[in-house]
Q: What sequence folds into this?
């Protein structure tokens, strides 16, 4: 009997261990049924049930229509390992164990009232600030910027603020939304997604954005006691709770719904978050298109990933920070430069023309990125202002279309790259640093506290009430800075003193403003006031429009914008507007040397002519005496004969 | 240019310079001519202010000066600083390259007849003609790289030709000077 008991116990233990390890594997790195292709090029039909955030099936007969959960619906029974997907680049910014790679576009927090424009990132990119430093919780971050990220990341993390934890019961979490990228249906509406996020309808955002349903109401106006599963009549009839109305005839007889899902994400899905627009270069239709897109390529032809969603960003030496096996071969050189040492030619795939770079000394490739000559707008004497989807909320409803609207992003700034960061700042590595490439730039402007020569931003909630007393939020419709005088800075700094740990300072336009012991305002340069730059990759120009096409003088001349152009300095401080900085200051190159070097190119045609003439004369001399020698030998030979 | 090629060039250059200077020094110690003056030295002794000989001497001095500066600016960054020639080194190198080209042409024109006569030892004549011959790949490798004719691999090949021609020319120039004046 005891033996039977022991056997049963052992079997039970083994079964439990197997079950546990299976479930751990499923939630970990194991690929599920839908994660791995069997090789067929056909697109699997996604006729599937909709599941709510608790995994319950949604049917048209439900008394209250719940929003569907993309994670539960796509995760389904053994369909996709969504935990694995969520480790991907688009969702993992909050994970400290992920290598931050090359510094990229930050989120930019703008507040005109406090004259603030500050680059934020959960990744430890030098020059950006952690949202927490500004007092922005994950819940607030999601509310502010969730419009332009595909859910997940901070959207799924509990806020540090207890009040916001209560709010998140009402709003729900902004789950990773697979449909944001993979829904090929024309009805997928990310602008609607942005509206839902603005209404704090995080739980409803994916449902509202899809073609399947309509979401009305706003979680923002609901009391903390609101329960979406048991909505009760509200006292105020004007308040409308978030409500889902599924469109007619979307459910089949088995209560399944047909999704138009694609693995090959269409460009229009990427564009919502990754558009750029130069407001002073004319309307969008009149502006050029990236040469790859014009040739018919799609974003995901180069920016590829497996089920891990570890998408290639497409920069040199990316493999140092990425596990994606294609990380290096999907950068420019992978397709456009023939690798003589490789037995299997990779270059030229997808019809990529092989770059020959005739007449360009190889030293250029040691010092310049491919994008330096091939990407962004043709450089002019001064940088231009540009807008991006994420910074300017492009594509959302009622977006401010003014060309001067904050934040102010300038480009192309030809600057030395800061390199690739691996893991975290403590093991920071610079791999590609040193190459000059085009960048976008933002001049940070914020109220900070100076401690041990480092400046940390002051919590915006401390700054706001003080600034509102002193700085008038001018009601102009340009979205421009509120004018800030030195007297106002002095007043704000005086009021901030004692309210923060360090010495209050204001950073703007590359300057640090602080009060002297006498109480007057002083301005000086400081590393914290340096602009934040991130590399430009697109739009790529065709060869015929690349730098150098007109000769070396495109860059090596005294008037070349590449070296001697200017970068506009942006600041709300009235007395310091309309200033600029020389491009060469970002390249860490000796300015007199570059001027002398550029000057030598005036004589280069002469040098070529003289050298060729000299070579011809030397040839003739050698030839003449060679003939003489031959003649001598011949004479000797025949004379003796 | 990859680091391997740079390292190989550095090793070869160090070895070449060391061997040449050592050979010259050893030869000077053990086989130097006692009392007999070389034809070059004899010509310098017969110096007259305005004459073809004076012109030739000036050309010889100018070429020697240019070669010394080009050796320093060309090899110093690579061999000592372990970096590709750039910056002010490059500007100085290119600036001196122009008079060097002029002088090499004049050297070829004015000394060719002299160094084809029988009165000079074979080695002196051989080193002179090698100097003139090596000037061709040296000049052409750099001039051709300025035209849009060669792609990256062609450019790298031209750069290799240029620096190895320069190395050989430097060796030959040292030997020629020693044989002419030693």
A:
């Amino acid at each position: 009997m005891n033996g039977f008991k022991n056997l049963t116990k052992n079997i039970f233990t083994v079964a439990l261990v197997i079950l546990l390890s299976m479930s751990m594997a499923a939630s970990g790195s194991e690929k599920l049924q839908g994660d791995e292709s069997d090789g067929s090029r056909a697109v699997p039909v996604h006729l599937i049930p909709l599941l709510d955030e608790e995994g319950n099936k949604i049917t048209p007969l439900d008394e209250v229509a719940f929003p569907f959960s993309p994670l539960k619906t796509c995760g389904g029974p053994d369909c996709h390992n969504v935990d694995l997907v969520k480790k991907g680049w688009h969702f993992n910014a909050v994970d400290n164990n992920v290598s931050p790679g090359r510094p990229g576009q930050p989120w930019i927090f703008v507040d005109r009232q406090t004259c603030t424009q500050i680059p934020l990132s959960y990744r430890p990119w030098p020059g950006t600030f952690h949202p927490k430093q500004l007092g922005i919780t994950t819940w607030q971050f999601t509310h502010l910027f969730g419009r332009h990220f595909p859910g997940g990341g901070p959207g799924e993390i509990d806020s540090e603020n207890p009040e916001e934890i209560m709010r998140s019961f009402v709003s729900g979490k902004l789950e990773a939304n697979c449909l944001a990228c993979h829904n090929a249906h024309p009805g997928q509406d990310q602008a609607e997604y942005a509206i839902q996020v603005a209404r704090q309808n995080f739980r409803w955002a994916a449902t509202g954005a899809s073609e399947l349903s309509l979401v009305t109401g706003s979680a923002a106006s609901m009391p903390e006691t609101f329960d979406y599963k048991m909505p009760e009549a509200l006292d105020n009839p004007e308040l409308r709770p978030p409500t889902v109305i599924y469109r007619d005839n979307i459910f089949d007889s088995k209560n399944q719904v047909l999704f138009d899902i694609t693995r090959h994400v269409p460009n229009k899905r990427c564009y919502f978050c990754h558009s750029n627009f130069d407001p002073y270069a004319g309307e969008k239709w009149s502006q050029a298109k990236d040469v790859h897109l014009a040739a018919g390529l799609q974003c995901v032809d180069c920016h590829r990933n497996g089920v891990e969603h570890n998408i290639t960003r497409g920069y040199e030496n990316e493999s140092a920070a990425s596990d994606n096996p294609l990380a290096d071969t999907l950068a420019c050189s992978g397709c456009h430069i023939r690798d003589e040492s490789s037995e299997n030619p990779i270059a030229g795939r997808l019809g990529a023309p092989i770059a020959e770079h005739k007449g360009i000394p190889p030293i250029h490739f040691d010092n310049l990125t491919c994008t330096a000559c091939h990407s962004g707008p043709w450089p002019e004497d001064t940088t231009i202002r540009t807008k991006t989807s994420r910074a300017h909320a492009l594509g959302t409803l009622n977006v401010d279309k003014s060309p001067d609207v904050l934040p102010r992003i300038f480009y192309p700034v030809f600057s030395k790259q800061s390199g690739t960061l691996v893991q975290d700042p403590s093991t920071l590595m610079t791999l590609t640093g040193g190459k000059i490439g085009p960048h976008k730039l933002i001049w940070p402007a914020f109220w900070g506290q100076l401690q041990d020569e480092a400046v940390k931003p002051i919590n915006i909630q401390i700054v706001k009430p003080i600034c509102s007393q002193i700085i008038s939020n001018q009601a102009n419709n340009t979205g421009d800075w509120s004018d800030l005088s030195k007297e106002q800075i002095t007043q704000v700094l005086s009021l901030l003193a004692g309210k923060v740990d360090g010495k209050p300072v204001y950073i703007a336009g590359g300057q640090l403003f602080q009060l002297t012991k006498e109480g007057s305002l002083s301005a000086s340069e400081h590393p914290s006031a340096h602009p934040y730059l991130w590399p430009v990759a697109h739009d790529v120009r065709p060869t015929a429009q690349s730098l150098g096409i007109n000769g070396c003088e495109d860059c090596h001349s005294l008037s070349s914008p590449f070296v001697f152009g200017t970068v506009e300095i942006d600041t709300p401080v009235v007395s310091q507007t309309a200033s600029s900085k020389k491009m060469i200051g970002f390249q860490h190159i000796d300015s007199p040397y570059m001027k002398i070097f550029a000057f030598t190119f005036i004589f280069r045609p002469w040098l070529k002519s003289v050298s060729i003439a000299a070579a011809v004369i030397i040839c003739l001399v050698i030839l003449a005496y060679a003939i003489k020698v031959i003649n001598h030998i011949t004479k000797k030979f025949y004379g003796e004969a | 240019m990859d680091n391997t090629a740079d390292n190989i060039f550095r090793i070869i250059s160090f070895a070449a310079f060391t061997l040449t200077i050592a050979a010259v020094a050893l030869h000077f110690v053990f086989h130097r001519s006692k009392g007999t003056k070389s034809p070059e030295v004899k010509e310098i002794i017969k110096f007259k202010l305005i004459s073809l000989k004076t012109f030739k001497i000036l050309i010889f001095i100018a070429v020697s000066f240019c070669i010394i500066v080009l050796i320093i600016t060309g090899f110093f960054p690579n061999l000592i600083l372990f970096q590709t020639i750039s910056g002010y080194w490059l500007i100085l190198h290119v600036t001196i390259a122009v008079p060097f080209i002029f002088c090499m042409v004049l050297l070829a024109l004015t000394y060719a007849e002299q160094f084809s006569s029988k009165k000079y030892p074979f080695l002196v004549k051989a080193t002179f003609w090698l100097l003139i011959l090596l000037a061709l790949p040296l000049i052409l490798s750099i001039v051709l790289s300025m035209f849009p004719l060669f792609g990256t691999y062609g450019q790298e090949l031209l750069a290799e030709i240029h620096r190895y021609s320069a190395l050989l020319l430097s060796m030959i120039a040292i030997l020629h000077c020693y044989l002419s004046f030693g």
Remarks:
- Chain A touches chain B at residues 337, 340, 355-363, 365-366, 590, 593, 596-597, 600, 604, 607-608, 610-612, 614-615, 617-619, 621-622, 624-625, 628-629 (CB under 8 Å).
- The longest helix of chain A spans residues 604-640.
- The longest strand of chain A covers residues 409-416.
- Residues 376 and 390 of chain A are 18 Å apart (CA to CA).
